[in-house]
Each structure stands twice: as structure tokens, then as C-alpha cells.
Amino acid sequence: MSSCSNDECGGGGGGACGGGGPSSCFEATNQPSACGAAAPQRISARTSIDAASRPSSQSASSAATSGSTNYWWRSSPQFATMVDALPPAYNFEIDKTLARVNKDKAKRIALQLPEGLAMFALTLADLVETFGGPQVEFAIVLGDVAYGACCVDDLNAKALGADLLVHYGHSCLVPVDCTVIPVMYVFVTIAVDVEHLVESIKLTSPVIGPSTRWALAGTVQFTHALPAARALLAAEETEDGQKAYPCMCDRRGAVPQAKPLSPGEVLGCTAPSVPNLDAFVFVADGRFHMEAMMMANPNATAFRYDPYVKEMVREEYDHTGMRQSRRHAVEEARGRLERGGTAVALFGTLGRQGNPRLVKHVVERIEEESSRARVVLMAELRPDRLKALGADVYVQVACPRLSIDWGDEVGDAPLLTPYEVEVARGHVNAWWGESPRAYPMDYYAKDAGPWGSSSAVKGGRLNAF
């Protein structure tokens, strides 16, 4: 499944359309973290993407739609011309989108895209207005930044009079039964040369080989290629007839899953933790999401395959620097809270980034002793705005990576995540000490602790507005 709509997701179950809450809010930036990264080691030479390996026209992307649907727009020369303006390797699910607009008789359709897809927004809007049906009054493009699925902006879309929102480029982490208007998610899967990916993985030997525990992961645009790559690797044999890449993990371990994400899918704040993992290959054009996988599996050797340039690189992450920085922030916050310092619970209002129930839980944690929390709403957390507030401690319910990557930019006031305030208040064992463990990257995982956004919606709806 490559898209998610109101009738497909139900209450936000598992799989690609799982519920839980927003995703990482730096989906499109793909920037290294503030902790820095060592220069990547080149594994294979750059090559261009072969156009022949790309999927056919956008109009063929309708496998999940009923075969009885009348795609009347396909006979229009204008439709073909407009679709040709979109890159053939990108699956925008045009047929499925137009079928949904026609079926729902939607009149005002809002389109929301991350920065990396914004260049296609006007063409998509033209397609919806022209072929969405005679009832369509207009298609509007939401121009505010959309870093991730956490930024799905159904609230503003409704305020603008829209009766359907089409959100591109992210999976359905905000359950569709929790939005104020119907939302259709289009993942925008992108073609991958699976054979080249597999050949590149072979070059990592012996790091990935017969006796190692390895895994495949990536961003949602590329996870569709992971099962095929795993199958090709599983079929490889050595000269003596033994499996060349048996993967010492179980079948699910080779393409691990952090539910409610789909198998192999990783967000900048949520990644599967695989016990005793030796190495993994991450399919993406940037390393922001990959860093979450690295943090969740700190002892694993990490490779990144860029499907655009067909290049495999070995990536490094400063685990020691990150952990020391976050430990200092937690210990500083603990001391200030114990002394009754002023605290601010930051509620991210960019789309559905903030979670009202989690904010309430954070406030309760802060106020367990002598401190008092003040809730501040902010669309984008800017260091200069936080410094102007002058609080002693900040705990932000927006994106954990804001604290991990840019927490030091707030000045001397610590900027904690919901997980870190649990540590500061002594409810969770720290990642340092006698039994050190990985810094958890499970913000939207179903099995996260009380600091997770999914935990905050158990027994109730995410929508608290």
C-alpha cells in the first residue's frame, strides 16, 4: 500500500497506515545532526539513474483502487500532457487521487507537500481542478513548511473551507479518524534499481556476509524496494552452495519494523532497535532519518545507499558526543527543577506536531515537586524566541530531534524531550551509568513508554481541540 485514505486507515491500525501520532518534523531537510558526522567512505562509483528502470506513466498507479472505477480522464490529451510534466520515477497516484475526489464529490481540495516536492504542487493542483469532477470549485496549495507527517495541516485546511486534504510524501501517522476533515495520504514512492542496490550491498562484505546480523531500512519513499532486495540477497549462494547472505536475524529482523510504521520505515524520531545488530543498509538520499536508526542501534555499522546517484557510503555518528550533550542537559534540568526553577512546556502547533495529552503529561512531570510549568504554543521552535522567554528549563512536545540536534543553541537553559524529563524526574533509568543502553528512538512506536506520542493517545483520540 502506498497511500492512505479515510476509508483505508479506519482507526489508525498497524502497517503503512498505522495510527499513533505525528512523525519527525525534519522530513525534508536531510541535514546532519549538530553532533556532526565523519566524512563518508565511498563504497561504489556514482552512476546515473536508468530511465528504463523507472515505472511507467502516473496514470498506471492505481492498484489499490477498485478496478470498476471509470478513469474517464485518461482519454483526455490534456491529462496526458499534464502528467508528463511530473517525473516518471515518482508515483503521485494521480488516478487514485482523482477517483477519491470524484467519489467524495469534494468541492474544495487542499494539497500539502514537503519542500522536496513543492515544485510539483501547481501541476497537481491543476490536475485536481481539471479532472476532479464538475463539483470542484478550487484546489489550494498549503504553502507553509511541512517537515513530516506531524505537520499534516487539516486544521488550517478546514479553516480555509477545504473538505478534503491530500498530504504528499509521508505515511499516515496522524490517524485519519482524528483529523477534522478527510485526509488522503500519498506516500510518493520512488523507483529504485533493486539489482544495483543488491550489487552495492555485496561490496560491503565481509561487514555484511554469511555470519552477520544485518538489516535493511529506509524512508517511506523507498521501503517498497526492501523486500525485493532481501529476496535477491537470500537467493545468493557461495561456491560451496551455502547461503551467502542468510541474515542471522529472523525474517522480520532483515526488514525490521517499529509499529505502527511499515516494515523497514524509519522516521527521524522513530526507528526499530534490532538486538545485536551488526550492520544495516539505509536507502535514502540524506542521512537525517538514518541517524535515528544509528542512535537506536549504536553498535551497528551503517551504510547508506542513495538511489538517485546509485552510491553506497559508510556513515558515522558521534554517539559519545550526543549522549554527553544530552546527559548534561538532563542533569542541569534536574538541578534547576529541584530548586524550583521556572519551566516551560512547549506545544508545537505546526500542523499536528504537538500532542495535547502528552503536553499534559509533561506538565504533570514538571510539577511533581516545587516547580511550576507554563504551557507555551509555538509553530516553529526558534532559539531567539526561547531565549526571550527566559525560563530555566524547557520541555518541548514537537520533535525530539529539535533537542538532540539543536538543543545547545537555546543558550544555557536545557531543552528536554518528553523522554528526558522522565529521566530527569527519576521515572526512567538513564542511558548512562552502570547499565548503559541505547538512547531510545521510539517517539511514535506503539511500545514506547509514557514519553511517546502513541502512548499519549492510548484509550483516547489524538484530537483534543
TrEMBL record:
Reactions catalysed according to its record: L-histidyl-[translation elongation factor 2] + S-adenosyl-L-methionine = 2-[(3S)-amino-3-carboxypropyl]-L-histidyl-[translation elongation factor 2] + S-methyl-5'-thioadenosine + H(+)
Transmembrane spans: none
Keywords: Iron, Iron-sulfur, Metal-binding, S-adenosyl-L-methionine, Transferase
Top EC category: transferase
Cofactor names: [4Fe-4S] cluster
Molecular function GO labels: 2-(3-amino-3-carboxypropyl)histidine synthase activity; iron-sulfur cluster binding; metal ion binding
GO biological process terms on file: protein histidyl modification to diphthamide
UniProt-listed Enzyme Commission number(s): 2.5.1.108
The protein's annotated pathway: Protein modification; peptidyl-diphthamide biosynthesis
Chain positions covered by the region annotation Disordered: 46-68
Bias (Low complexity): 51-68
Any Pfam family hit: Diphthamide_syn
PANTHER family cross-referenced by the UniProt entry: 2-(3-AMINO-3-CARBOXYPROPYL)HISTIDINE SYNTHASE SUBUNIT 1 (PTHR10762:SF1), DIPHTHAMIDE BIOSYNTHESIS PROTEIN (PTHR10762)
Protein family (similarity comment): Belongs to the DPH1/DPH2 family. DPH1 subfamily.
Name assigned to this protein: 2-(3-amino-3-carboxypropyl)histidine synthase subunit 1
Organism: Pycnococcus provasolii
